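batch_manifest entry 22 of 60
target: Gfo/Idh/MocA family oxidoreductase
source organism: Oceanipulchritudo coccoides
requested by: lab member K.T.
priority: normal
notes from requester: please return tokens only, no post-processing; we will run our own comparison against the previous entry in this batch. if the run fails, retry once and flag.
--- input ---
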Amino acid sequence: MKGFQKECNIRCAVIGYGGAFNMGKVHLDQMQAAGMKPVAVVEIDASRLEVAKSDFPGIQIFTTIGSMLKEAKPDLVTIITPHNTHAELSMKCLESGASVVCEKPMAITLEECDRMIAVAESKDLLLSVYHNRHWDGCILEAVDRIRNKDEIGEVFRVEAHMGGFSQPGDWWRSSRSISGGIHYDWGVHLIEYALQVINSKVVEVSAFSKEGVWQTKWGKDTNQDELTAIVRFANGSLLNLRITHLDSEPPKGEVVFTGTAGKYFMTQNEFELVQVRGDEKTIKRGKNRPAETEKYYLNIAAALSGKAELVITPDWSRRTMEILALATRSAAEGRALLVDS
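--- output ---
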């Protein structure tokens, strides 16, 4: 991978500076805090370019990607655009010689992911996906207690769910062809949480969906109302993922880890740990540790500088995509799918 002598030599840019969640500024702020230099923003909305100029005085602004790559010559480009554009834009930047960080999910299909990985490898460039929640305090606490301290024994089942009973908004994230489906947003994070505990290969995915209850401006292209995926791993572990707009009484805990000696209920702020030792059951509740989100771009800067191994590798990101893509196919085809089948 091409490297740099000092982090401050890394010139970075973002594609996308939309108003939703102010993500363009969030990324550039984190890059800057990691020692990198923001040099350019690409955005088709002229009013948002004015915001970028105000947020980062002196930064170059562009309305086309080609002109930005040619004139600003960034070393690293972060892509903050709708999901169905990730693959094309990533490969364009990689082909130009820039390393890429892509907002999650990596792409829509596994074929797109594999093309992105192939281009990055052929150019000897960094490719990563912004799995910032890898360092959420809730999962750091859970991994420490479950994997390091072995407080619930061998984990054999993970249940992850997000949503409630509400109509989805009329924006691109509700369009299946643009977003990928209901499970392509928060589902990415929940899967990534689970994979930090289940260290095993996916062997089978079976998914089920309910559609046609809620309607948005996207009509038949509206995301599924609910999707449930059952994922089987080579070590015998099971992940049950459910993303829904139809659940009036969601279960306790966004992620629940069940082990041979207890159970761990995880929410963003708190945890509940149930331990069973013989006939004795104990319950412990507590607050999660603080998030360490800054570690994402610190690791990117260190990896580009040749000082550390990349944590969120393309192969790591592809693991979440494998589950998302197989769940999409399984629900559509009405059958369980073996990996590589």
